[in-house]
Amino acid sequence: MHIVVCIKQIPDPEMAPSQFRIDEDAKTAVPWPGSSLVLSPFDEQAVEAALRVRETLGEAKITLVCLGPEQARAAIKAGLALGADEGVLLSDPAFEDGDAITTAVVLARAIEKIAPFDLVLAGRQAADTDAGVVGCGVAELLGIAAVTFARDIQIEDGRARVARALADGTETVEAPLPLVVTVSHEMGPPRHASLRETMRAAKKPVEEWSAADLDLQPSEVGQAAARRVVERLYIPTSDVTCEFVEGATAQEQAADLVERLRQAEVL
């Protein structure tokens, strides 16, 4: 059993709002000097899902795949410390400033190179852009089925039984392997890295592949092939005003509130 987990390094979602900056002219987020980068929480749960499948089966190989600059190697190390076996960093200047489509193209090509594989896992969405389309894009490019919002995954006899989290409950679907599954936060909290696995992670192999290694041309990836058009990127401003209802008693306050609502033509 070979499980491939697609992961992403993002700015820490727990950072203070004061550390978040937007360059509206460049339409991009500006990293705060010294701000920390972390493994996307949804992808962390995808790693947890892979580990649970391995524990159920008794044996499985888990490979992490991450697209990003050299510093994204830290996200791979974080996943290896949780218990994954090996990692692949997809790093090339040509990959920069891409969108969901070009990201899916690079990940799919890397997974094809990693093949054979049985199961591809990813977070339901990245915790920075929250687009949630890369996983399904990878499935489309690989020509295999995708199941989204998984809260539980069971593998038996070459098939996956996936419990999906819905807005009003849960549904269970089955699909043959190989398969792409995106993992939701209903999977439950991921485990913490043990000291033993953290020490072992330093010795686990991490390969680095460029566009040339994946037989991709610069025109096929990154900004050159991106289809997303950003119209505007900004931090919304709040123009909400608060008024106190006057009155010495509850009846007077109620009367004042009704009068204000009438003036506002709400009543």
General description of the model:
The protein is an alpha/beta fold and 267 residues long. It has seven helices and 13 strands. The chain has a nine-stranded mixed sheet with strand order 11-10-9-12-8-1-6-7-13, sandwiched between helices. Helix 2 crosses helix 5 (195-201) and helix 3 (100-114) packs across helix 4 (134-142). The longest helix is centred in the N-terminal third of the chain and has 17 residues, at 41-57.
Q: Give the radius of gyration.
A: 23 Å
> What is the number of beta strands?
13
- What ranges have pLDDT less than 50 throughout 5 or more consecutive residues? none
The multimeric state of the shown protein is: single chain
Mean pLDDT: 91
Shape: globular
The largest β sheet comes out as: 9 strands, mixed
Instruction: Report the structural category.
Output: alpha/beta
Short description:
This protein is α/β, with parallel strands linked by helices. Helix content is 28%, strand content 27%.
Tags for this entry?
267 residues, alpha/beta, nine-stranded mixed beta sheet, 7 helices, 28% helix, 27% strand
Helix and strand layout, with pairings?
Elements: E1 2-7, E2 9-11, E3 21-23, E4 28-30, E5 37-39, H1 41-57, E6 61-67, H2 73-82, E7 86-90, H3 100-114, E8 119-123, H4 134-142, E9 146-156, E10 159-166, E11 169-176, E12 179-183, H5 195-201, E13 206-209, H6 222-225, H7 250-263
